[in-house]
UniProtKB/TrEMBL annotation:
It comes from the Bacteria. Belongs to the class I-like SAM-binding methyltransferase superfamily. RsmB/NOP family. It comes from Salinithrix halophila. The active site is at residue 232. This is RsmF rRNA methyltransferase first C-terminal domain-containing protein. One of its GO terms (biological process) is methylation. The keyword S-adenosyl-L-methionine applies.
Length: 458
């Protein structure tokens, strides 16, 4: 691997006698990790069920190293069922640090493709409000897909420049994650293209953007709330340097100790002439642990006046026909009315939305809430998101396949399957974990697995 010369020089100055050990990691393969999605399965049960060779990651209870030469978990049907998320082990540390709780209001400001959003959602146990914002339209597609696959019901997906959110959400969030866009020095091994884009200048402009994002986020946090700032770069300018600039003009914020930091090295404010308080932040180094590398800081906003409360906004209303076809679908398909609303309709798509949410008028909204499905003129087509968020006990008709069943792969390819089941929407599951919808009629299970997710097994 040919590292940029200026980068190597910079790291030699910083790391001194550790430089050889650090540089030798570029001769090694990236570490591979997956994180069990506790919205669907516990880590203990996953250890029994998943056919992979897994070793626990010390800083994340749901995290495991896997052997890339032996196993390909990203291609397994349990991945399509959302039982886990493939994630760099060190990238699991920012959410462990932020540690959100059920019922809180949480903002993930730079969210795509959703590794940390799905981790936040699991910690929130499906309760509270999770706002996932991602400025790139292209990257939001992967974010939405990952949220759906993981069965996340309490997320709203926005596509805004952070500064456009500030006034809308002043003092609204209990916790904020800024997993900032960065020069990606910790990605060189996994994604060599990051290396092509790297220059001293790119680290400077990344630092300015990071400060802008922090400035936009600060007013959105409640007094007493916590904010995690993380990057996957080693550059002090983008880590301790940016935070020092931010803290210099925000006395209402102070760094707090990162929990579980015994696995990590302390940050290096001395490398950036930054405040000593930043020794409480941490660095994850690829030559010190199995992971690509990360920087993580936890900041707390001083408790005090709550500030102006945001008035709840109004969502576009739902007309009678849409409600009626949805109610009919619920009565015919679900064992209880699990999603009582409030609802909104975007086009003919029905969403369950959080109560008391600030107005979204004028914002780029990809998902105003939990996507239930499409209300057509005389019937309701349930969404893939709904299928993946249910349990078999909540549905009247279920067909379950063994993970190796050939019929399951035909379903994933988009084929209809013979069926002697009762007529109607049917939840298709693998080992009782939902994977999509089918609809039984005329002795066939018609295939409703989304076209864009179908497996090409040719
Ligand atoms: C490090 S990545 C986020 C990774 C994500 N948190 C995860 O764990 O899957 C940073 C994200 O910030 C987004 N971004 C780029 N410019 C931005 C800006 N000006 N404001 C906010 N986000 C930006 C990028 O598109 C990118 O998706």
């Amino acid at each position: 691997m040919r590292l940029p010369e200026d980068y190597v020089k910079q790291m030699e100055i910083l790391l001194k006698e550790e430089i050889d050990s650090f540089l030798s990691t570029y001769q090694e393969e990236p570490s591979r990790g997956l994180r069990i999605n506790s919205l669907k399965i516990s880590a203990d049960e996953a250890m029994d069920r998943l056919p992979f060779d897994l070793t626990p990651i010390p800083w994340c209870k749901e995290g495991f190293f896997y052997d890339h030469h032996r196993d390909r978990p990203g291609k397994h049907v349990f991945h399509a069922a959302g039982l886990y998320y493939i994630q760099d082990p060190s990238a699991m540390s920012p959410v462990e640090t932020l540690d959100p709780r059920p019922e809180e209001r949480v903002l993930d400001l730079c969210a795509a493709p959703g590794g940390k959003t799905t981790q936040l959602a699991a910690k929130m146990e499906g309760r509270g409000v999770l706002v996932a914002n991602e400025i790139s339209r292209e990257r939001r597609k992967a974010l939405v897909e990952n949220l759906e696959r993981c069965g996340v019901k309490n997320a709203i997906v926005l596509g805004e420049h952070p500064a456009h959110l500030t006034a809308r959400f002043t003092g609204w969030f209990d916790r904020i994650l800024i997993d900032a866009p960065c020069s990606g020095e910790g990605m060189f091994r996994k994604d060599p293209e990051t290396m092509e884009r790297w220059s001293i200048r790119s680290t400077e402009s990344a630092a300015d953007l990071q400060l802008e994002i922090l400035e936009a986020a600060a007013p959105m946090l409640k007094p007493g709330g916590r904010l995690t700032y993380s990057t996957c770069t080693f550059n002090p300018r983008e880590n301790e340097g940016v935070l020092d600039r931010f803290l210099g003009s925000h006395p209402e914020f102070h760094p707090v100790e990162v929990p579980g930091s015994t696995h990590f090295r302390a940050a290096r404010p001395d490398w950036a002439g930054a405040t000593e308080a930043l020794y409480k932040a941490v660095r994850l180094w690829p030559h010190c642990l199995r992971g690509e590398g990360h920087f993580v800081a936890l900041l707390e906003k001083t408790a005090g006046e709550e500030g102006t409360r945001q008035k709840p906004g109004k969502f576009p209303p739902v007309h009678g026909d849409a409600k009626q076809v949805y109610r009919q679908f619920v009565a015919e398909t679900l064992s209880t009315d699990l999603f009582p609303g409030p609802f909104t309709l975007y086009g003919d798509h029905l969403y369950q939305v959080p109560a008391d949410f600030p107005s979204m008028r004028g914002l780029v909204v990809d998902r105003p809430g939990f996507h239930l499905g499409q209300a057509k003129r005389n019937h309701f087509a349930p969404s893939h998101a709904l299928a993946l968020a249910l349990t078999p006990e909540q549905v009247k008709r279920v067909v379950s396949f063994h993970p190796d069943d050939e019929a399951l792969f035909r379903y994933l390819r988009g084929e209809a399957l013979p069926s002697d089941g009762d007529k109607g929407w049917t939840l298709v599951t693998v080992d009782r974990f939902p994977i999509g919808w089918g609809k039984v009629s005329g002795g066939l299970l018609k295939n409703h697995y989304p076209k864009w997710l179908r497996w090409d097994l040719a």
